[in-house]
Each structure stands twice: as C-alpha cells, then as structure tokens.
Design brief:
There is one protein chain. With 380 residues, the protein is α/β, with parallel strands linked by helices. The strands form four sheets. It has a seven-stranded mixed β-sheet, with no helix packed on it. A five-stranded parallel β-sheet has the order 10-9-8-11-12, sandwiched between helices. It has twelve helices and 19 strands.
Length: 380
C-alpha cells in the first residue's frame, strides 16, 4: 500500500467514493456512491481543532476521511461505517500504540482490546494484567507482528499509526481486516490531536464519553493557556525550551508546526524551530541543533535507561551537550517513560503536559508540582 494515495479497504470497493464534496466543517455534505450514481445527503460532524480528519453522517452510514498529513489535498484513507460497511461499534480490536490503548481505558472500553503489539512499552497495569490472564493477546513487535495470531483473534479492526513512505503493512494487509490508520500524532495543535478521541470513541460505542472527556480537556487546556498568557505579560523575554536528545548520530526535533511547538508557545516559552513549517520530526545532527538551540534555557527529554541519569553521564554520552546553556546552568529535566505513563497520557491529556511545560519554563509562578518530568539533580 502506498500511504500517499487514497486507499479503500478492498472489501468495501462496491461502496467506494466516486465523488465527495464537503461544503464546510459544520455544514451539510453530499457523496455519490456505488455503481448506481445515487447521491446521499449528509451532515458533517464538526471538529473544532483537528485538521486531518472529516466525518459525515449519511443516514445510517458514516463516511470518514483521513487526510494525508504529508501531502496536503490528498486523502490517506476513506472508510464507510455502518450499513454495508464496517459495522459499529467495534467489539474486538488489535491496538499497536500505547496512547490508543490508554484512551480506550479512559473511555471505559478496555474490554474492546483483543490484542496488542509492543506490549513492553505499555505502562498500563490493568492492560498488562489482562494479558497475563489471557484476556488480551500479545501480538509481538509492531514492526513484525505475529500475523497468524492476529488472524486467529478475528478482530474487527487493527489500530496503528501510519508513517510517511512506510511501504505498506505487508502480510497484515492480506488478512482482510480493516486497518484504522491513527494519524492523530500529525496534528498541528495539542487540542487537534486530542480531538481525535471523538472519532475513536465513536468507533467503540463510547461517543458520549469521548465528547464529555474532550470537553474537560479543552476547558482545562484553554483555561491554563489563558492564565499563562496573563502571567507572561509582564516578562521581558520568553524562555526557550529544547526537547529530545541524540539517538545515535541523529537528533530528532519536533517541527515548528508540531504539537510540541504549540505546547511550548502556549506554556509561555520560545521554541527554537518555531519558524519551521513541518508538523513531523526533523532529523538533525548535533551541530545543526547547537547552531539553533545552544542558548536554550530549559532542556527536557525522555530517558528510560536503568542507570541513574546524571550530568556526568550526559557529558560522557556526548561532550557536545555541555555547550547547551541549560546544561551549563543545570536546568535539565527528564521523564522516565518506563516508570510513569507519559506516552500513555499526554496525547489525549495535553492539559497535563502543558502544566509541566509551564512549570519547567516558569518555576517562579508556583503552578504546582510536575506530573511527569523530574529536574536532574545538580552535579556535586
């Protein structure tokens, strides 16, 4: 499968969309389907922040388009749900990403998970217990899952995150099981990504719960953002934040239009790549990072290694780190994602992450305690 083209699940070919005209995000829409040329009139489900998904109801059918985040104007995938399409709610799902497994738990739909991939990265005690009890199957590594095991589970759908130029899903596509491509991580705003929970809730029959949770997240995020803006009015400069660190010889930083970039701005900070127009990651060398962000006031990243993290260990990892202002001032923070549910929560609770960012950038504001990050202890 080529992710750069619109793809229709083969067994839905009879209902492939021949033409789709959406009038606006909150209005009515029409679609011509099937060989008869019949035109259906539908109502758009309004999305306030998400920009890579559209949902339109046509009576007892639902048309969902996932827009290609890497090629504007193209469609990543189209789905028909309901009559003569994928039947809802989904009862049995195989989930590849810990954030989506966690969300199903938030929506009270953990029992819809029949199998998971990359179990070792899922910091979800209740889910791990279900795997141990044989209620959820461990389908192996997400890059090479146990396809035979997955087929035996007879799931209604497989949830996974698409990547640009991935080359497709190999044998998994041959199973005839609908693949839900979860491209929420490519949204350009934290609330845009979180709003995808409304789509996922609809899939598993938890639409009301998802809408309610999103309202809570939206209110909390916007209230905190506005409070931060008021506090920042009297400050002469906005502190800057650098994220991530070297992976081998490459430093993957978030693009300027990513949720990370937006979070830092909403937390009253400056993001070194704010002028960049990418929403995905940028693979850079250490030298390229230092050229732009050596003066960063705060440095925050994930560290899941077992040995205690210290400034000495960071310097031994790469001497170039010592050129970062936050390192010199010992203003480095890290999150151990193997001990706290960081990746499980932040995708759909950006309000919690926003508070952590604001606390790291503005410790003088006394906004409370950090939820995920820990400040690296000063060197003796």
């Amino acid at each position: 499968m080529n992710l750069r083209r619109a793809v229709i699940i083969p067994w839905l070919a009879a209902f492939a969309v021949l033409a789709f005209f959406a009038s606006c995000r909150n209005g009515s829409s029409s679609a011509t389907v099937g060989n008869s040329g019949d035109t259906l009139r539908g109502d758009t489900i309004a999305m306030r922040y998400a920009r890579h998904i559209t949902m339109v109801r046509y009576g007892d059918r639902l048309l969902v388009e996932l827009l290609d985040p890497w090629h504007p104007g193209r469609v990543l995938r189209r789905y028909w749900f309901g009559r003569q399409g994928i039947q809802l709610p989904l009862r049995r799902c195989v989930v590849f990403n810990t954030a989506h497994a966690s969300l199903l738990g938030m929506l009270g739909a953990t029992d819809r998970i029949a199998g998971v991939a990359d179990r070792k990265y899922m910091q979800l005690p209740s889910l791990q217990q279900r795997v141990e009890k044989g209620l959820v199957a461990d389908c192996g590594d997400s890059m090479s899952p146990d396809v035979e095991l997955m087929a035996g589970l007879q799931p209604d759908a497989v949830w996974l995150s698409p990547f640009e130029n991935s080359g497709g899903y190999g044998r998994l596509e041959q199973l005839g099981i609908p693949i839900i491509e979860c491209a929420d991580y490519m949204e350009t705003s934290p609330l845009g990504r979180a709003e995808w929970m409304r789509f996922y809730g609809l899939l598993v029959g938890r639409q009301a719960e998802a809408d309610s949770l999103f309202s809570v997240v939206e209110h909390a995020y916007l209230s905190l953002r506005d409070s931060i803006a008021r506090l920042a009015r009297g400050e002469a400069r906005r502190p800057s934040m650098l994220t991530e660190r070297l992976t081998g010889s490459t430093w993957y930083v978030a693009g300027g239009r990513s949720t990370v970039g937006r979070l830092i701005a909403d937390a009253g900070g400056r993001y070194p790549w704010a002028a960049d127009d990418h929403s995905g990651s940028l693979p850079l060398s250490l030298e390229a990072v230092l050229d732009v962000a050596a003066d960063a006031d705060v440095w925050a990243f994930n560290d899941s290694h077992r040995p205690p993290l210290t400034y000495t260990r960071l310097r031994a990892e790469h001497a170039g780190y010592a050129q970062i202002e936050a390192f010199r001032r010992q203003n480095v923070y890290f999150v151990n994602s193997m001990q706290v549910p960081y990746f499980e929560e932040v995708a759909f609770r950006p309000d919690w992450l926003l508070r952590d960012y604001a606390i790291m950038l503005h410790p003088q504001w006394a906004l409370g305690r950090l939820r995920y990050f820990v400040k690296l202890s000063p060197s003796p």
